[in-house]
Each structure stands twice: as structure tokens, then as C-alpha cells.
Please model this.
Amino acid sequence: MPHLPPFQRFLDTQRDDVLRFLVAAVGRHDADDAFQETFLSALRAYERLQPDSNLRAWVLTIAHRKALDIHRARARRPVPVPELDDRAAAPGGEPAADDDAAQGDHWERVRLLPPRQRAVLTLRYAANLTHGEIAVALNCSTEAARRAASDGLKTLREELPDVPASA
Amino acid sequence: MSLHPPDLHPGEAAALAARTASRAAGEGVAEVAYARVDGPVGRLVAIATPRGLVRLAYELENGGLDSVLDVIARRLSPRIVEAPASLDNVRRELDEYFAGRRREFDVPLDWGLVGSGFARRVLEAAIAIPFGATSTYRAVAAAAGSPNGYRAAGNALGANPIPIVVPCHRVLASTGGLGGYTGGLERKSLLLGIEGDPGGGQLALATDG
Model:
């Protein structure tokens, strides 16, 4: 009979993916708290989990809900949104000084997309979930997840260079 | 460049995970906390519940950390985190003991891996043997209420989940031999040496079959 791994091992295995996802989904400033809240929620629910569950998809679903909470809180209490860096957006403009800054711009723009597109793109490209896993996380069909990814990428391609051509 | 995962700073996720684990133990969300403790007997894994120290494992003799934690996850709870601060008192008392500055342990114990039967009475009889003294399997069996149960007493001591703190190393064979030990006879000798039995273990090793 399979057993759940000790929680610490689960935390050590998933921590990098969860943090990458949260940095992309809510930005570095809020990622620390969201990370701790994600794993504390996971720990509270841990024993109700079936041992053969997809642990990675499960914890990223929790992280997605924490990210959603943060976006809702921001919407209720608006703060100035960061402007896109012109250099990254302008065709033929100078390449951004370093990858970190350029990357930051891409994810900052993703965060401004409609909620489902934002969720699908962060889960797909920052956390590397499949469209099937994303559909389960968002409680929608795989087709709807695929479509949201495609719509989001289309918007990004109109504004940003080198965004992948397909979902 | 394309839409790829954000870069993490080296050690960033590990540090955040450590803070989360420590919070989980401190706020009582985790049910089991562990820490690794180094000493003259090698590396130990100390594991505690809110009730007390439930396991002190010789890491290598028990198949490594993963294997030790797997047993706890199965038998107690999988809600286990590494939280060294939660085991500060255990580490301090062990350090003092190894340095010869402590004769008795004061940390509370959790008998969750032992139950309440004969095995528990045997281990409590072992606790009653003072620092620097020794007893025999037969005497411990008698103290636990079963004078003829010395084999069962030996098994209970061999399965002691909290060695050193529950001093099963003070129980020797009636012939004067060392008997057995969960951490290997060299460690039994070493612990008896710390307690002021210089070389006694060596002699016993030579005479015990």
C-alpha cells in the first residue's frame, strides 16, 4: 500500500517550482508570503490526500489559489501598475540590459492579462504543468485551458518580442 | 528570449522552505519535527512530537535519513518537517551528556512508537538504571514484571526507539558480556566509557559470544 512521503521531502522536492510559479504569478515582493501560505495550507490538508495523487499539480493548484487571492486583494485596493519597459517592447530597440530585467517585464505583462490567461500562462511556462493538469487546477476543460493560453500568447506577441508561437 | 521560468537566486527556495518548516512546527501545523544532531557516536536523527522526544535514530544504522522518516510517516504521521529549533533542548542535553556534564535527561518522552505493554515497562526499567551503573537482561525483565522474560526484554531493548536517552546501553548479559545494541557494540562501549567504565566494554567484547 503506498504512503504519502514525509512532508519535508515533498516540500524539498516542490519548493523550486512553486517559488518560480509564484514569482511569475505575483512578483517577487509577494512571492515569499504566498510561498509560506501555500505550503502551510498544503500541510493542513496533507493527510486527506490520496498517496497516489499528482503532488506537483496539487501543490501548484494551491499556489494558484494563493496567487488569485493576492490579485483579488490588489484589485480591491488598487496600486499603480508597473509600466512596460519600452526597450523590451519596441521592435528593433536595444536588447534589455540583462535577462532578469527582460524576464521581469514579460511576467509583469502576463500579470496584467485576464485572470484565466494569466493563470494558464504562469502554470504552463513558469511551473511547466501540462494543459491537462492546468485544466484540473482551474476546474475548466483542457480545451478552455489551451484556448486561454493561445489568447494570452497572442496578446503578448503583439507587444513583446520572442514570445513562443504556440501554446 | 521566450516566456521561461523566472530565475531563482541560489539557495533562495531552500531558505524559504526552511522558514516555512520552522513556522509549521512553531505554529503546531506540523505534527512531527526533526533535527540532525552530530556527536561522538556519529550522526543522530532526533524526532519529536508536541508530547516529547519520540525517536532518536543512529542515522547510518537505520538506512539513512529517508528511511528513518519513512517509518515515522507510516507509523505516526506524514506531517513531518525539519525544524532544528524545536529540538534545541534535545540537542543541548545530548551535547552536555557527551561532554560528561549531564547524568540524566530531562526532555519529555513520547512513547508513541512503543505502546503501553511489556516493552514499555522494560524501557522504563532501563531508565531507572543510574548513570555509570549497569544491569542485566534478566534483572530488567524482572523489574518489568516478568523474571523469565529476558529474551523478550532483550528484544524490547533492541527495538528501543530512543537509545542513549532511554539508556538500554546500560543493560548487559548476565555472563558479563556486552549483549547487543541497536547502534552496534562499539557505540555501546563508547557510551559506557563516557559514563566512566574505562575499557570495560573492551573486555566484555572479548568474552561475549
